[in-house]
Amino acid sequence: MIMAWTDYSSAPAPGTHVCAATGITGVHPLTVTTDRGSFPMIVLRDGDVLRAYVNACPHQYLPLDYRGDTLLSADGLRLLCTAHGASFDKSTGSVVAGAECGLDAVPIMQKGDQIVIAP
Question: Could you give the CA distance from residue 107 to residue 50 in angstroms, rounded to a whole number?
Answer without folding.
Answer: 10
